[in-house]
Design a protein that fits this description.
The chain is of the alpha/beta class. Helix content is about 30%, strand content about 20%.
Length: about 260
């Protein structure tokens, strides 16, 4: 009788474990590769990023691989993922083969989420004696804008102008954030769909842009969204920023 009960209990545990593993497998909807920069300028945000993205994934049923190893940017590895998050990683920090792999990934219709320094476009970053080819495609992805020196880190107000887009639909009309408020040679509007801007009256600019987008998507690509804000680890605990990043990733992964 005791042996029979033990066999029954063991069988029940095996069945329970099977269904538990199966439920966990079903709960994971997609995989995200977060590629972080090694730049010292952003190490505070990056050091908090792994826990941030893993928590976001756990709460929203997607798997996250977080790394600062750019060798992971290759066709075979990227094929495992539905979304590539470029977390402060600048385009000029990738080799030509890595750039080509990411370009293929995006052009295949996979999701790309660029954060802050991911948008550092411009030939100035190659250096005056650089022999590397400029990644013109990436400048086009960004809406044909190039980066200009940013002002001091300070509080400013983000103004959401498009609540129809899934990436910004759950954000309030306005919210405060501390950031560097990147500036560009011109507004990308006209080449991209602007989702949010920064109110330049709420902080001191380096060179006022007037129309100053902060979040946008280039609809020439199936799933691309750039989030200019996010310099500081304080962003990662800002409830509105958490919502923004969550919805951006979920949208980038959607079919």
């Amino acid at each position: 009788m005791i042996k029979s009960l033990r066999r029954t209990s063991a069988s029940a545990l095996i069945i329970l474990a099977f269904f538990s593993l199966n439920a966990n497998a079903q709960a994971i909807k997609f995989k995200v590769l977060v590629l972080a920069s090694q730049a010292k300028d952003h190490w505070k945000s990056i050091s908090a990023g792994k826990e941030f993205f893993e928590k976001l994934g756990k709460e929203n049923h997607f798997a996250v691989d977080f790394t600062d190893d750019t060798s992971k940017i290759n066709d075979a590895n990227l094929a495992k993922y539905q979304v590539f998050v470029m977390f402060h990683l600048a385009p000029f920090d990738m080799s030509a083969s890595q750039q080509a792999a990411l370009q293929k990934f995006v052009e295949q219709g996979k999701g790309w989420v660029g954060v802050h320094a991911a948008g550092l476009t411009g030939k100035e970053f190659l250096g005056p004696n650089s022999k590397a080819a400029y990644w013109q495609w990436f400048e086009g992805l960004m809406g044909n804008v190039t980066y200009s020196p940013h002002p001091a880190f300070q509080d400013g107000m983000v103004v959401v102008e498009d609540h129809d887009h899934p990436g910004t639909k759950n954000l309030p009309a306005k919210f405060w954030l501390a950031d560097e408020w990147y500036e560009w040679n011109k507004s990308p509007r006209g080449n991209v769909r602007v989702l949010a801007t920064v109110d330049e009256s709420t902080y001191k600019q380096n060179k006022p842009m007037g129309d100053h987008p902060m979040i946008w998507t280039n609809e020439n690509f199936r799933r691309m969204i750039y989030i200019c804000i996010g310099h500081s680890p304080t962003s990662l605990v800002n409830p509105n920023y958490v919502i923004l990043m969550r919805d951006a990733i979920l949208w980038a992964a959607s079919k």
